[in-house]
UniProtKB/TrEMBL annotation:
Protein name according to UniProt: Fringe-like glycosyltransferase domain-containing protein
PANTHER family per UniProt: FRINGE-RELATED
Domain Fringe-like glycosyltransferase, residue spans: 116-197, 262-468
Lineage: Eukaryota, Metazoa, Chordata, Craniata, Vertebrata
Membrane topology: Single-pass membrane protein; Single-pass type II membrane protein
Pfam families on file: Fringe
GO annotations of cellular component type: endomembrane system; membrane
Keywords, alphabetical: Glycosyltransferase, Membrane, Signal-anchor, Transferase, Transmembrane, Transmembrane helix
Major localisation: membrane
InterPro entries: Fringe-like_glycosylTrfase
The keyword ATP-binding is assigned to this record: no
Species assigned in the record: Anabas testudineus (Climbing perch)
Listed GO MF terms: glycosyltransferase activity
Length: 497
């Protein structure tokens, strides 16, 4: 049954949403409005008094899913400082706040179970950009029995079966719910302890990590042997200043991260990988959509076609992998044959991308650092594997990253080796970080949950299969974002210093 509910007072959960009635310890009053046939329900949670509420706060461990590039470190440090400041206003003993990029090797389930299994009740995972209202979050968690297994979050679901989820639940994709990490998600300690024992006894077997939030939910659910995700309406992805966010425990900025002026068009060199058979099918889409936004762009093919024009790098075309072509592009980027730019963007010929939005995002990164940016996948991570930037959504490299890659002597083991994975192996061997941005997408908009895309300003999508790529570009990627505010940049975009 769908219900709408609202607040009672400052020490109760203050919310007005239409949701399925929660399975929590609540008292409930419902009235049917005859003039407007919806249920208006007030839930009164038997919340603890302020003193007891502070005890709940000390039982929470926050894990910020941070990354190691300087921009993300600043983001995570600010978030940690804000959490501790809020906690300090409530209690002298703050909760534990961990940063993933610092504690990466000590934040597995076994480590969390060992370190916090006896003196904590909840592990709460946050994205760097997730804002937390501490009192409300503690109030929400206090309504759940901490001695039971709970998997809490804002639920996402697939509209149709999708390749990024291996076509799971093909007959009814919407039946399975998984958390939107941007809204925060939480595990009760009893669940953490059991999962830690499970991992110890049955090591993870999955080779590829593609969509971690979906894979985490599948692992916890365990074909019905574990808990499903419990929806918590107070975990939100609404902007903090939105009226809808008034009663949220977590909020999110929906604008494009911006750290000053967008980088100049002249700072980005764009390399498009194509081949002769797609010259008339895919290249025209790029020319109709985003080519005009790039100052420096070259098409690399197995056939030199002056009408496009394309450049033959002397690497035979392969049906898959394209590693030889990609490494030839890296070498050309550092040569005198192309303009000296700070950034290299490598895309497929069926990648749809917003160059203006990319320029805004790159204002947050330092090109003197070895930056490798895009949508991050993983291979064999539970067995000491590596992360990599998946190529279809676009791979962004700073000049420094390309210099270090080529100076290392890393190279393809064959021309048709998977270029993105080989680059991931090289970066891992060099100890260089792979930086994830959820704004890059390896698949089509249809392959992602609608609610997941709703709070994004996406930068790229990939594949022309079963879609009109020009229409998709116009709907999702064409707008008035430009290099400077005077050019029409979204003035509400948040600034990250």
């Amino acid at each position: 049954m769908q219900l709408c509910y609202s607040e009672v007072d400052s020490w109760t959960i203050s919310t007005f949403f239409c949701v399925t009635a929660p399975q929590r310890n609540t008292s409930l009053t419902a009235n049917l409005l005859l003039s407007n046939p919806v249920w208006v329900v007030t839930f009164t949670y038997p919340l603890p008094k302020p003193i007891k509420l502070l005890m709940y706060l000390r039982e929470i461990v926050f894990v910020i899913q941070s990354q190691s590039s300087s921009f993300h470190v600043r983001q995570a440090d600010r978030q940690r400082a804000d959490l501790l400041k809020q906690a300090h206003s409530l209690t002298e003993k703050p909760p534990v706040v961990l940063l993933l990029h610092i504690s990466l090797n000590s934040l597995g389930l076994a480590d969390l179970s060992h370190s916090f299994g006896k003196n904590s009740s909840w592990i709460v995972f946050l994205e760097e950009e997730t804002s937390v209202r501490m009192t409300k979050l503690v109030q929400v968690l206090a309504t759940f029995d901490k001695n039971k297994e709970w998997f809490l979050g804002k639920p996402l679901h697939d509209e149709e079966s999708t390749i990024i989820h291996h076509y799971a639940f093909a007959e009814n994709p919407s039946i399975f719910k998984y958390p939107d990490f941007a809204a925060a998600w939480a595990l009760s300690i009893p669940l953490v302890v059991r999962l830690a024992n499970k991992v110890r006894d049955e090591p993870l077997k999955s080779d590829f990590t593609i969509d971690l939030k979906h894979e985490v939910a599948l692992y916890i659910w365990d074909n019905g042997k574990g808990p499903h995700l419990t929806a918590v309406p107070e975990l939100c992805t609404e902007p903090e200043d939105s009226p809808q966010a008034l009663y949220c425990a977590t909020t999110l900025g929906s604008e494009l991260p911006m750290c000053g002026e967008a980088v100049n068009k002249e700072d980005i060199f764009v390399a498009v990988k194509t081949c002769r058979k797609f010259h008339s099918e895919r290249v025209p889409v790029i020319k109709k959509t985003w080519e005009k936004d790039a100052i420096f762009l070259e098409y690399y093919s197995d056939h030199a076609d002056p009408s496009i024009p394309t450049i033959n790098l002397g690497v035979p075309n392969t049906e898959r992998g394209h590693c030889g072509k990609t490494f030839a592009i890296l070498q050309r980027f550092l040569s005198s044959d192309v303009p000296n730019t700070k950034w290299l963007l490598i895309v497929d010929d069926d990648t749809l991308i917003s160059i203006p939005r990319l320029r805004v995002l790159l204002s947050c990164y330092d090109p003197s650092e070895p930056v490798c940016l895009g949508e991050r996948y993983g291979y064999g991570l539970s067995q000491g594997g590596y992360s990599y930037i998946t190529g279809g959504g676009g791979m962004v490299f700073s000049r420094e990253a390309v210099v270090r890659l080529l100076n290392s002597g890393c190279k393809c083991y064959s021309n048709d080796a998977p270029d993105d994975m080989v680059l991931g192996m090289c970066l891992n061997a060099l100890g260089l970080p792979v930086t994830h941005s959820p704004l890059f997408h390896q698949a089509r908009p249809e392959d992602y949950a609608r609610a997941f895309l709703a709070h994004q300003v996406p930068i790229s999508f990939h594949k022309h299969w079963n879609i009109d790529p020009v229409a998709v570009f116009n709907k999702w990627l064409r707008d008035d974002l430009r290099a400077k505010p005077s050019d029409g940049l979204n003035r509400s975009a948040k600034t990250e210093l």
